[in-house]
Design brief:
The protein is an alpha/beta fold and 311 residues long. It is built from 10 helices and 9 strands. The strands form 2 sheets. It has a 7-stranded parallel beta sheet with strand order 3-2-1-4-5-6-9, sandwiched between helices. A two-stranded parallel ribbon has the order 7-8. Helix 2 runs parallel beside helix 3 and helix 6 packs across helix 10. The protein is globular, with a radius of gyration of 20 Å. The mean pLDDT is 93.
């Protein structure tokens, strides 16, 4: 197949190229255009406005403004990139010969917090903040234009993607554990879903090669992990014994509130992010590609990522 990938030089795009370069003809669309093995040519966004693009079979839209945990980016940047560029590339798809469009949205477009046991595709979207809001606006635009014709549109909502070469939000936790600092939040028992890059590539392969019904699909590993389990897995990858303290939860919450008042790194918001439940139901996408389980376990995926940090 001829595949056009926006944001091709990012983490996910680079891994897709590495995985499929010997199977498919891959073209890029990005703000940079370095020469890389496996990419026949990288186009610019302005090329969409001119008749210079070849015909494609599939378009994978990865380009976007990532969630800025330091909150240094203005809201307009998210909407300019995540919403407006999605509109531009989807309009191009509808007017092209391509038959399949895969859009990487985010689970944060669905919900910033998970109220029940898990979040599935039927949840009424309630994003919080410009990242999730800009993603859901892009989803709404796509859904307003997709049809039941011969073109397939697939919206993916992955939870946190990680893998060798990409620390993601695991970086802070890894830094703490590597320094030998005991983990003080052992009394908080939570569950969170993650997405191993290997499982993501497995899913993409299934989406490319099967007749997939137009719709929204959550993406995540099969088994959620607690933060305590993450700490233990990081220690395992580092060859160390985990040190997890079960300090009183009430005391920890008081310390976090003090941190909020004093604008310290450890505050109520950070405590919530480290200890909240956020489990993603991935059953719909597995049914779509015809599998019962994904090939990489959550634990093996985390260990592989952590070992890459260390090397």
């Amino acid at each position: 197949m001829k595949i056009l990938i926006t944001g091709i030089h990012g983490f996910v795009g680079s891994n897709i190229v590495k995985k499929f370069k010997d199977v498919h003809q891959i073209y890029g669309l990005d703000i940079v255009s370095p020469v890389k093995d496996g990419i026949l040519k990288t186009f610019s966004w302005t090329d969409l406005d001119h008749d210079v693009m070849p015909d494609f079979d599939v378009i994978i839209h990865l380009a976007g403004k990532a969630h800025d945990v330091k909150k240094q980016s203005g809201a307009d940047v998210y909407f300019k990139v995540n919403t407006d560029l999605t509109k531009k590339i989807y309009d191009f798809f509808l007017n092209s010969t391509a038959k399949k469009f895969i859009f990487f949205s985010s689970i944060k477009a669905a919900a910033d917090y998970v109220a029940g046991d898990s979040v599935d595709e039927n949840v009424i979207p309630n994003p919080v903040g410009p990242y999730g809001e800009s993603k859901i606006k892009a989803e709404e635009y796509i859904q307003s234009r997709w049809t039941a014709g011969d073109k397939q549109t697939i919206i993916l909502r992955p939870c946190m993607i990680h893998g060798p070469g990409n620390k993601g939000n695991l970086n802070l936790l890894y830094s703490v554990v590597k320094k030998g600092i005991p983990w003080p939040l052992g009394a908080f028992m939570n569950k969170r879903s993650f997405t191993s890059i290997d499982n993501l590539l497995f899913i993409i392969d299934g989406l490319l090669n099967k007749d997939i019904k137009t719709g929204i699909y959550n993406v995540g590993d099969d088994t959620p992990l607690s933060t305590n389990e993450l700490v233990a897995l990081i220690c395992m990858a580092l060859g160390r014994k985990p040190h997890i303290w079960n300090l009183n939860r009430g005391v920890i919450r008081i310390i976090s509130r003090i941190g909020t008042m004093l604008h310290l790194p450890f505050n109520s918001e950070r405590l919530t992010k480290l200890t909240e439940n956020y489990v993603v139901d991935n059953s719909k996408v597995k049914r779509a590609i015809g599998v019962e389980t994904l090939p990489i376990t959550s634990a093996d995926g985390i260990i592989s990522t952590i070992k890459s940090f260390n090397s």
